[in-house]
Amino acid sequence: INTIPLDDKKTFKLLQEAKTTGLFQLESSGMKDLLRKLKPSVFDDIVALLALFRPGPMGSGMVNEFVERKHQKTKIKYEHALLESILKETYGIIIYQEQVMQIAETLAGFTRAQADILRRAMGKKIPEEIEEQREIFLKGAKKNDIDKKTIEKIFDQIVHFGGYGFNKSHAVSYALLAYRSAYLKANYPIEYMTALLTAE
User: pTM (2 decimals)?
Assistant: First the structure.
């Protein structure tokens, strides 16, 4: 199972058609609907899908924005060139807590420990803590010659999206299990369904 390719065409066809009954994390009607809209084509899409399929992101409009950007119906715009390498895999949207930390480290010169404090403040959504972090973030970005208007816009995006941020390593673990299940169902349907029915 460790050697299966992560770009199997049959697997992605099955996912795009939402034939995901009996698959880990992917069998609810809401998830099937999202799979049909998103049409995942790379492993990173599955990771993002699992991170986004939660009440917070779904209620905030992030999911629709992600789908629109993936299918190039909405232009992907980066407020600063340094953001592209951090947000390219998620089409310019902050989905993971790790991205919040990378932005803070890259643009505002935060240490890893400081970035983790920012991540926690976002997760807890405590206004005073967020404002405190804003000051530190703006000061750090100023040292990197990033203009105030741009960096304020970036921080507002962190507050908006970062509050729903999901732990990427957790999402990757789940996505790998989901993808492997999908691979087995797509390539060995009889064996997969037999094993599933026996187990369940």
Answer: 0.89
User: Taken in order 177, 181, 186, 191, is the CA torsion positive or negative?
Assistant: positive
In this structure, which long-range contacts are made by residues 127-135, counting pairs with CB atoms below 8 Å and at least 24 apart in sequence? 130/159
In 3D space, the residue among 94, 101, 45, 47 whose CA is nearest the CA of residue 71 turns out to be 45
pLDDT band for position 80 (cuts 50, 70, 90):
very high
Per-residue pLDDT reduced to its tens digit, 154-175: 999 888 887 788 999 999 999 9
Read off the pLDDT of residues 178-187 as tens digits, 9 standing for 90 and up.
999 999 999 9
Q: Which two tokens stand for residue 121?
A: 């403040």
Element (H, E) at 131: helix 127-143
Instruction: Determine the residue type at 167.
Output: N
Identity of the residue numbered 142? K
DSSP β-bridge partners for residue 96: 166
Residue 178 Cα to chain centre, angstroms: 15
Interatomic CA distance for residues 149 and 38, integer angstroms: 33
For residue 91, what are the CA distances in angstroms to 45, 63, 82, 101, 104? 10, 12, 14, 18, 19
